[in-house]
Amino acid sequence: MRSNQPQTIYLSEYKVPAYLVDHVDLRFELFEDGARVHSTLSVRRNPESSEDGAPLELDGDSLKLESVALDGAGLSASDYEDRGDQLVIASVPEQFELSVVTWIEPRNNTRLEGLYMSSGMFCTQCEAEGFRCITFFPDRPDVMARFRTRIEADKSSYPVLLSNGNDVDRGELDDGRHFVTWEDPFPKPCYLFALVAGDLVEKRDTFRTCSGRDIDLRMYVEPRNAEKCDHAMDSLKRSMRWDEEVYGREYDLDIFMIVAVDDFNMGAMENKGLNIFNSSCVLASQDTATDAAFQRIEAIVAHEYFHNWSGNRVTCRDWFQLSLKEGFTVFRDSQFSADMGSPTVKRIEDVTLLRTAQFAEDAGPMAHPVRPASYMEISNFYTLTIYEKGAEVVSMIHNLLGPEMFRKGSDLYFERHDGQAVTTDDFVRAMEDASGRDLSQFRLWYEQAGTPVLNVSDEFDQERGLYRLTIEQHIPDTPGQSNKKPQHIPFAVGLLGSRGEALPLILEAGEEHAPAERVLELTEASHTFEFHGISERPVPSLLRHFSAPVRVNYPWSREQLLFLMSHDPDGFNRWDAGQRLAVDVIQSLVGAAKDAAVEPRLVTSYRHLICDSSLDQALVAKMLQLPSEAYLIELADNADVPAIHRARERVLKHLAISLRDELVACYRRNFESGDYEITPEAIARRSLRNTALAWLLMINDEEGRELAFRQFRGADNMTDRMGALRALVNSDYGEDRNLALEEFYQQFREDPQVIEQWFSVQAASERAGQLPQIHALLEHPAFDWKNPNKVRSVVGAFAGQNLAAFHSPDGSGYDFLAEQVCRLDDSNPQIAARLVTPLTRWRKFAPAYRQRMQAALERVRDKAGLSRDVYEVVHKSLAD
Ligand SMILES: [Zn+2]
User: Model confidence over 626-638: pLDDT tens digits?
Assistant: First the structure.
């Protein structure tokens, strides 16, 4: 186990590496009981390091050292020091070859970092610090080397042997063994190293690049998954084309490979030329994957592919710069998804995640800047702040510079830093140099944590025809940071007249051809803008397209929100007005008397959405989703979750009862029998009919129940089957629920990815996911503690989505989670540290809940031998 008092690592203490590695020669002998790793490093002193005569220090973790040789001469134990987590050689020449042999046990590696086994195959995960679990190495991203990798294994059990780059040699060995040698011509940090050995089937395709080179595309999956590769392969080809067209980036190797792995801590990993994916993020067929899964797969395939430039060719200097590659790449994959589908819907989805989960992180004990200043365990910093807020920061640069200047900036960035390990500051500087804009104040977005709050007020001067908008910004204190400076915020606005017309935004009297939308640049604590030529009080449309990741407070009346819902030319803001109205209505019912009335205008506006088929149906499908419980909790102080849950359910049921006939009609209108398609229109139709079904079953509607069963049994795709199953599971018809769950299980019991969905639909449901039922799921033969997807689909879904049960007033949900975190901490600390997150938000809740959550956290803290991963999260969240 790791030490009990983990060290904090600071950005301010960054030093260039004392030694560089130019070339790495690896030889893996893979056996059933372990693996012998022979590594030969070509090392030289770093001319940029001032540490003359520094000892050579190589990182290691859980390695059994067999031998060390320097320039071919074996070293004796007195020549080096094996500290367990470091191999230190006090005295080395300026330039030398170091050969190290280690023994590792992939079969016993339950942390899933380094080399491990999943469903009988060897695979790796090296980001962030997994390579040190394979061999001794300077495990830091600013040491970039060329890798040559020879893999040897039994040929019948492991016919496929893969690593990065191109395969340059292969052959037979004694005892039924064989080998393949791979050579990667591009220098890379060791976190991008990958190895796979297994009995896999290969799916092939090709892609011709813009310069006319043919790239060999290969997917490797277990034989049972052979029919589930097409969507990922098509997504890959679309991504490759898009990156050429939009960013001018061509693929560089001759082969691009994707491997699907069942046991994986993350979603996917961008190893150079050999991307490794969690099966659930790459395999799909109409019969087994929902629309959301299809879209997620397309986005993740694109994301990992885009990393080839934003991450691999240009990488991070140190892990504090993680958002350099992640924020930029998430921004790129969001642009890609918007181009492939509906841009407004994509924006709504991104902002929903950001406002629900990232804002909560920014307001919680683990709040950190996009470029953190310190960490204990870097695995804990693969966060929504690094990824999603990091993407918003890049998006704001895009807003400020405009698309052409932004492209010039990204071209300059790639050209200037190709083959280098750099910082977020280098990225911003490239944008400044290309555009001539000064982004010095903008850099605060990387340095200051917390979500800026904008308080907006307005004034109308009828006599002078002036409309004044005053925007005050304030950034809340976060752990270790207070008294923050104002940030540079692009704030997109429009003004609407009483008939819904867009008014010209005249900032200087007499200005002609003023635009109807402007991006105001906020740089001061308070900013006032005057609009001229306004003859009546307008309705402001603020922060269009969510032009910055901030909270906006403005005293909208319900009247104004209803007006924006039907008139705002910005689709995003139309949706947002609907969300604000629904939030306001639900909040007013939290703790209210049982017979308190539900706002009748909410019903009217939803009726209009359901019935007017001339509206953009993809947007309507989103507008009909009430704000989630998680979002309502995020907005509340002293949240009383059961009360919020009841208020939200009350509104849902009231809408369903009032609109019962309209919902049945909506269901029938959107029912279809044609071929399954993944277009925004078809996705919207499925979403609308499944929403209608869910609402009808909330009120135990007999016709809805029949429709649900008919759809459940007759569906030709997983979206409809799962939509019907979810509706039945959440209804009061207990027998129907059990029947549908059992039928579903029998149909898909052989497919682990579908069974994960089956677990999570129960664990996330208040009706099917009370604690005794959750315990039963954990005992189910298909459940597996060693598989992170299974853990997430039961324990994660319960604590993250089944909020009324998790926040049960007796604290049993908290105790349950604490117990599972402690149990997982020994085997897989990365997953344990992620799972504990809901408890770390304890300060957000009403006092009775708060105390119980705190007590549960303290029990985790007191566990003997707590991992560094969980230690950091728990200690930070309990700190004052
Ligand atoms: Zn990434």
Answer: 999 999 999 999 9
Query: What are phi and psi for residue 804, nearest 5 degrees?
Result: -65, -35
DSSP string, 635-695: H-SSB-HHHHHHHHHHHHHHHHHHTHHHHHHHHHHT---S----SHHHHHHHHHHHHHHHH
Give the pLDDT score at 84: 87
CA–CA dist 720, 687 (Å, integer): 9
Please name which of 562, 580, 590 lies closest in space to residue 598, comparing C-alpha atoms: 590
The DSSP secondary structure of 216-230, one letter per residue, reads: EEEEEE-GGGGGG-H
The tokens 């998680």 sit on which residue? 630
User: 719 vs 287, 674, 765, CA distance in Å?
Assistant: 9, 15, 17
| % pLDDT > 70, the chain | 100
Q: Nearest CA to 86 among 110, 109, 62, 70?
A: 62
Give me the pLDDT at residue 594, please.
87
Q: pTM to 2 decimals?
A: 0.98
Residue 325 Cα to ligand 1 middle (Å): 7
* Distance, CA of 425 to CA of 422 (rounded, Å): 8
Tell me if residue 48 is catalytic: no
Considering 29, 304, 361, 634, which one is annotated as catalytic? 304
- Distance between CA atoms of residues 689 and 669, nearest Å: 8
pLDDT at 4: 52
- 131 C-alpha to center of ligand 1: Å? 18
Task: Write out the two tokens for 488.
Answer: 């540079």
The pLDDT tens digits of the residues spanning 61-107 come to 999 999 999 999 999 999 999 998 999 999 999 999 999 999 999 99
Taking the centre of ligand 1 as the mean of its atom positions, its distance from the CA of residue 408, in whole angstroms, is 23
HSE (side-chain half, CA atoms, 13 Å) at 200: 26
Q: Which residues share a beta bridge with 102?
A: 37, 65
CA distance 695 to 430: 51
pLDDT of residue 1: 41
